[in-house]
Design goal:
heterodimer; A: mainly alpha; 12 helices; 0% strand; B: alpha+beta; six-stranded antiparallel β-sheet; 8 helices
Chain lengths: 187, 259
């Protein structure tokens, strides 16, 4: 990638295309870093990179293009700060490790803990599964766009999503809270 | 299609990623097989639950202003030092720092009332312009207030009143979540003839209370009208005339007789 100082119009055109996706960028960075302040730094870093790479932006896929850069910035950050997160096997250890910090049964009896349990369960997913799940469920992105952002084949998007959902459904963090009667729907 | 094949395709089917032929085949199978239909329902329920319960983190205003600074080309206020460096600074300059903080606080609180009105109007206009320029006026685009209201409520800690006043020339175009005064705030988007009207709505308690009689100001050619009513602080921004805008906001803030 060529580094160059951009003239004003190119900078502002890039900013104009990318700025509408700042919420998506922050949401992704926040879920991947699990931390407000770090997510802010990551998105700013990504935005500055985006301005430098502005020539690579064709205009039609600004969101996927920007989120690709955000994801790279996230991975750089994780690599520097939590390298162990990038070296997980099938992802079950992370979830099991997080189970220790789950609330007591009395706490989980509270109805609203249901939502918190889901958040904890998603946060405990290995980052490679977390990102595809959130891009799909929160950003409603197509398999093709997710494949671009995460840089994997579409078939892998599909299998990772299936695995992410499976891990989430079976997550002890989730099951600690949801009564069995709520777990299945439509039978 | 047997259950094994169907199970493999269910995620893509639910995500709308199959071609029409495959999609029809899965649908056929789901009609015939209660086991797979149950599995599919579970999958859908999980998606619904994620959408409902997993928080969506919108860009915080502090970060937006840092990024605005980058856009403007002023690099100075960009990245704040990393946390560890900040602590070292704190240790070294604790006294000077705290004195400066106290001073800033004293000055800040003295001018807060004065700042509130003008800054808020400026922020609102900036937000209106940004939305118009980027052609991203609405996160949820519909004229149905029964869709806009729950969409906004799900993303905020309050539920703004939403009215469709198309009978009075103001057609509801949708809503979005925006930032004002360091809070996420409901933004209702209306169209009045060729004008776009952004109406920012937030609970009165969350802000320095606005006055019940509308205050009108002009920022960079846009009219800004602020009032309070129905327990909410209302602030409308548009290039429509001040009179029209004032009448409209007052009507919204009265909140009665929603059609």
């Amino acid at each position: 990638m060529e580094f160059q100082l951009l003239d004003g119009p190119a900078r502002s055109r890039c900013a104009e295309l990318v700025l509408p996706h700042l919420n998506s960028a922050y949401n992704l960075a926040r879920w991947l870093s699990r931390n407000d302040a770090d997510a802010e730094d990551i998105v700013q870093d990504a935005f500055e990179r985006a301005l430098r790479y502005a020539s690579g932006l064709q205009g039609t896929h600004a969101k996927a293009w920007f989120l690709t850069i955000v994801r790279h910035a996230c991975y750089d950050w994780i690599g520097r700060n939590r390298p162990s997160e990038l070296m997980r096997g099938d992802g079950t250890e992370a979830i099991e490790a997080a189970v220790d910090s789950r609330p007591t049964p009395e706490e989980t009896a509270i109805a609203e803990a249901d939502a918190q349990a889901l958040v904890r369960a998603i946060a405990a997913l290995p980052v490679g599964f977390r990102e595809v799940l959130l891009l799909r469920e929160q950003e409603d992105m197509s398999y093709r766009d997710i494949a671009r952002i995460v840089d994997i084949p579409i078939g892998t998007v599909m299998s990772r999503l299936a695995r992410a959902r499976g891990l989430l459904r079976r997550s002890p963090l989730l099951h600690a809270v949801v009564p069995p009667s709520m777990r299945t729907v439509g039978k | 299609m047997n259950c094994n094949e169907a199970a493999g395709l269910l995620p893509a089917y639910g995500d709308g990623a199959l071609d029409p032929m495959q999609s029809a085949a899965v649908e056929q199978h789901l009609l015939a097989c209660t086991d797979c239909a149950g599995r599919y329902d579970e999958q859908v329920a999980l998606g619904v639950r994620i959408k409902r319960d997993a928080p969506y983190f919108p860009a915080p205003p502090a970060m937006r202003s840092r990024i605005d600074a980058v856009v403007a080309g002023t690099r100075k206020p960009a990245r704040s030092p990393p946390a560890r460096a900040r602590w070292r600074w704190l240790g070294a300059g604790a006294f000077a720092g705290s004195m400066a903080t106290v001073l800033a606080w004293l000055i800040g609180s003295a001018v807060l009332d004065w700042r509130d009105g003008t800054d808020l109007a400026g922020e609102a206009v900036a937000s209106h312009v940004r939305a118009t320029l980027s052609n991203h006026l609405t996160d949820v685009a519909t004229s149905d207030r029964h869709t806009v209201k729950p969409w906004l409520s799900a993303r905020l800690d309050y539920s703004p009143p939403v009215q469709d006043l198309s009978s009075e020339g103001f057609a509801l175009a949708g809503g979005r979540v925006d930032y004002l005064d360091r809070h996420a705030v409901a933004t209702l988007v209306y169209r009045y003839r060729d004008h776009v009207v952004d109406v920012f709505v937030r609970p009165v308690a969350a802000s320095a209370a606005g006055s019940p009689s509308p205050s009108v100001s002009t920022v960079r050619g846009f009219n800004v009208v602020r009032t309070s009513g129905a327990g909410m602080d209302w602030l409308a921004v548009s290039d429509a005339s001040a009179d029209v805008l004032t009448a409209f906001v007052s009507r919204l803030a009265r909140g009665d007789a929603a059609p």
